[in-house]
Amino acid sequence: MKKITIALSALSLFLAISSNAQEKTSFISIQAGTSIPLGKFHDKELPQGGFATTGFSGSLEGAWFFKPWLGVGANVGFNMHPVDSEALSGEKLAADPFLTKLVIRSEPYTSPGIYAGLFFSLQVREKLHITFKALGGMLYARTPYQLNKAEYYLIGKNWYEKTPAGDYEFSWLGGAGLRYDLNDYLGFALNSEFTYNQCEFDFVIPGGSIRTDQIVISFVNISGGIVFKL
After folding, report:
1. Distance (Å, whole) CA 13 – CA 96
2. Domain 2-229 falls in which CATH fold?
3. Cα 194 to the center of its chain, rounded Å
4. Residue 89 carries which DSSP code?
């Protein structure tokens, strides 16, 4: 009887520790930081360059860990990348011999996304964790509205607009980071994320026909945030 009591006490202690570890690994976090465009999205050459520059990223993220090291969760994020209007103007001037002057006023690219998938956590010290995530979901990419103030040889001024276009694409998001636990309820996280998306945007051109432009939306997010431990 004594052995059974000891065994039951040990089992209860183990379950309590395991339950506590799972609760303290689960989290909700708010993050904000820098979004860095990569590859063709950042390139400053026509026709496939996106002329995107470093911008802003923000996200809300949460995960429930059914094991101390493995959980499931979701990420809702927003990314914004300004356009290098000066470089874009220079490229268009070089490509059109009849264009004598061009000034472009441009809004940024925007790309909100929603993802779900697996989260991983590895404790390396008492309060320090290495984290990873592999997520899939949907990205909505939107090109910027642009006002082109153009002047042509023998024609003069001809201002025109380039209206935005959007595209929904299945997307994936991979990430890695560090989390430092400030106490039993709060932590601080440093995260990096990467995504690559081949998007197609349909534009209505004079005459009513449709032109489809392929633009790669690819970027790395580097962010910091507050973690609320559950």
Report:
1. 76
2. Porin (2.40.160)
3. 7
4. H
